[in-house]
Design a protein that fits this description.
The structure holds 2 protein chains of 2 kinds. Chain A has helices spanning 4-12, 49-52, 60-71, 89-98, 104-128, 141-152, 176-193, 201-213, 218-232; strands spanning 156-163, 166-173. In chain A, strand 1 and strand 2 (166-173) form a beta hairpin. Chain A is extended. The longest helix of chain A has 25 residues, at 104-128. In chain A, helix 6 (141-152) crosses helix 8 and helix 7 (176-193) packs across helix 8. Chain A is built from 9 helices and 2 strands. Chain A has a two-stranded antiparallel sheet. By secondary structure, chain B is an alpha/beta fold. Chain B is 40% helix and 12% strand. Chain B has helices spanning 29-35, 42-51, 60-71, 91-104, 138-151, 153-156, 179-188, 193-207, 247-256, 284-296, 309-321, 333-343, 347-356, and strands at 24-27, 54-57, 79-84, 108-112, 126-127, 135-136, 165-166, 172-173, 217-222, 263-268, 300-303. In chain B, strands 4-9-10-3-11 form a 5-stranded parallel beta sheet. In chain B, a hairpin with a 5-residue loop joins strand 7 and strand 8. Classes of the chains: A mainly alpha, B alpha/beta. Chain A binds chain B through residues 84-86, 112-113, 115-116, 119-120, 123-124, 126-128, 139-143, and chain B through 46, 49-52, 322-324, 326-330, 332, 334-335, 338, 355-357.
Chain lengths: 242, 357
């Protein structure tokens, strides 16, 4: 085994492939905000179902994983990770995007008020509707949120590519993450900017989400405009080299 | 879909029988505007609007109060009941349940929605014309009189005044006039509305136990600990106003005294709107203070606890039936266990949780 000082210098430039040399250690100066763990540390498992599987029903890989976990150290879980059944990753992403200055309590509060508002409007409509129309009204705010986000996601995007001194808007395919990010970003900017001075965020957000659920409203309009721009710039599609 | 018959809601349930404990009874829609123009908690009002109906759970504190009211002797001095409990355990709802019962039995109900509203956030504080050192609150008094008029329409013409009241050099109300005129005058002449409130309370106190045309008077005060304590109001020279120096509070304290007969005083403690009280305080001794406790003593304490298992079940099934619990996981056993854990069976916390689930 190399001396401790030599080990420290190699470790400071280490790549994840050097797992053979890895040992559990924590650096002298701990980074708090953006945690950079030694790759030796394993990810935490927040889901409850994994721990309820009895011993006999484990596959060999799962048994191996459990043995590994009993030996290796595990990273600390972030605050947004829960074992609750009501945990929704898409909603957590939306909350993080809505957050300003790290104030997640306010952002989460706005989102819960939005969901409540949407549900109230829909349930009121449901109770006042005649028997035949009741099945068509969607009351679940989570379903409405997901469907509205789907309706806002663009299929194709534009990139600014330089060719011969000029910049052209070239239509490009988008990854799933990028599409979801764009839909959320448009929704949030729309609700922050284009509203009456006195409307609260949750009120405007619930109106926009309900409109997007029925494919109306400013956000789906923006998506359609992007699609039209991409369609009109079809000729430059061959400028894309990837 | 109801799994068990734990919860039945129907208009046939009268809301005051012991065997329906834990079940919901519906308040007829016509009663909402007459009996409760003020006094219901705001979140409950939203719930009534959303579900298009008003259902109240029949719980043990309200049943106890109602049984006491049925068996009390009304020729003796008034009994005072005090509802107390942790924050969000259902004190105001129990009070509203009792008030509804009293109004269905034909009592005259004097419902003060929140005594704390009278000791804070007052924009206009006029010096009283009747008594030099006291202060009037015209807006609060006229609002309350308007709501009082809506609640007790049928009594206003029956009760006659027994004394002559002089308001200004040219205006006075003679004796023998119906109470309705006094109330109308208070609503229209906002400046003297606090004194009108005092006059109304005095008349009702004198006439409540009377044998000819006698009616029973129920005084329901929410947040009674606001009457003894401190106010956040200030006089023009920035010195604080004590509660005794407000006409409304002074007259209400006389009402809560048990020197009249023919009715009952039902009061609720409330930490939520209270001033200068720590948030963990819920017992009568802590919230009323020395002075308040001595004035309220002797009273019948009625503790309001959190939901029992049966009541929680009932509430959960009610929300399911009204399509309020929409999250797919909240309708499973695991989701229910999580709700119990998160809310600790506290009624208001459960309501807020189920609102966004």
């Amino acid at each position: 085994m190399a001396s401790t000082s030599g080990l420290r210098t190699t470790l400071s430039k280490m790549a994840a492939s050097l797992t053979g040399l890895l040992k559990p250690w924590t650096p002298r100066v701990l980074l708090v905000r953006w945690s950079r763990y030694n790759p030796y540390y394993l990810e935490p498992e927040p889901r409850k179902e994994v721990y309820h599987i009895p011993e006999t029903e484990l596959t060999p890989e799962q048994k191996e994983e459990r043995e590994l976990k009993s030996v290796r150290p595990i990273k600390a879980a972030t605050n947004s990770v829960t074992s609750s059944v009501f945990n929704d990753p898409v909603l957590s992403k939306f909350v993080n995007m809505m957050m300003k200055d790290g104030d997640k309590i306010i952002a989460k509060g706005i989102i819960t008020q939005t969901l409540e508002n949407m549900k109230r409007k829909q349930v009121e409509k449901y109770h006042k509707a005649p028997e035949g129309k009741k099945a068509e009204i969607e009351c679940n705010p989570y379903a409405i949120f997901h469907q509205a986000l789907e309706n806002c996601k663009p299929v194709i995007g534009l990139a600014s590519i330089q060719k011969g001194g000029k910049f052209y808007q070239v239509p490009i395919p988008l990854t799933d993450n990028r599409r979801r990010f764009l839909a959320m970003k448009w929704m949030i900017t729309e609700c922050r900017d284009n509203k009456h001075r006195r409307t609260l965020m949750y009120e405007k957000l619930s109106q926009e989400l309900l409109a997007a659920f029925s494919k109306e409203g400013n956000v789906v309009k923006r998506k359609h405009e992007l699609h039209k721009m991409a369609e009109s710039n079809r000729a430059y599609a061959h400028y894309r080299w990837w | 879909i109801l799994k068990g018959q734990r919860y039945i809601y129907s208009t046939r349930l009268s809301g005051d029988s012991e065997q329906h404990q834990g079940q919901y009874y519906t308040v007829p829609p016509s009663h909402f505007h007459t009996v409760f123009p003020h006094g219901l908690p705001p979140r409950y009002q939203q719930q009534v609007k959303t579900f298009n109906e008003g259902c109240v759970m029949v719980r043990q504190p309200a049943l106890e109060l109602i049984s006491h009211l049925k068996r009390a002797d009304y020729s003796k001095p008034t009994l005072r009941y005090l509802l107390y409990g942790v924050k969000g355990s259902g004190k105001t709802m129990s009070l509203c349940h009792t008030v509804h019962y009293c109004s269905t039995q034909g009592w005259l109900v004097l419902h003060i929605p929140d005594a704390h509203l009278w000791v804070k956030n007052c924009k206009e504080l006029l010096p009283s014309s009747y008594h030099a050192s006291r202060f009037d609150q015209p807006i609060q008094a006229s609002n309350w009189l308007r709501n009082f008029r809506t609640t007790n329409e049928n009594f206003l013409s029956k009760i006659k005044l027994r004394q002559r009241y002089v308001w200004t050099k040219r205006e006075s109300t003679e004796e023998g006039q119906p109470l309705g005129e006094l109330v109308d005058m208070g609503v229209s002449r906002v400046k003297s509305s606090s004194d009108v409130v005092g006059a109304v309370l005095k008349e009702l106190r004198l006439q409540a136990g009377g044998t000819e045309g006698g009616f029973r008077l129920a005084v329901a005060v929410d947040g009674v600990n606001g009457l003894w304590g401190r106010t956040t109001l200030k006089k023009e020279d920035k010195s604080p106003v004590a509660p005794e120096e407000l006409t409304l509070v002074h007259n209400l304290r006389k009402m809560i005294n048990n020197d009249w007969c023919g009715g009952a005083v039902i009061a609720t403690l409330s930490q939520t709107g209270s001033l200068y009280a720590p948030s963990s305080a819920y017992l009568p001794q802590e919230l009323l203070g020395e002075e308040g406790f001595d004035s309220m003593d002797p009273f019948i304490p009625v503790p309001v606890s959190l939901y029992s298992e049966k009541e929680f079940e009932s509430c959960y099934l009610y929300y399911l039936d009204r399509h309020w619990l929409q999250h797919p996981h909240s309708q499973t056993e695991e989701g229910k266990k999580e709700l119990i854990f998160l809310s600790n069976r506290n009624p208001s916390v459960l309501e807020r949780l189920c609102a966004f689930l």
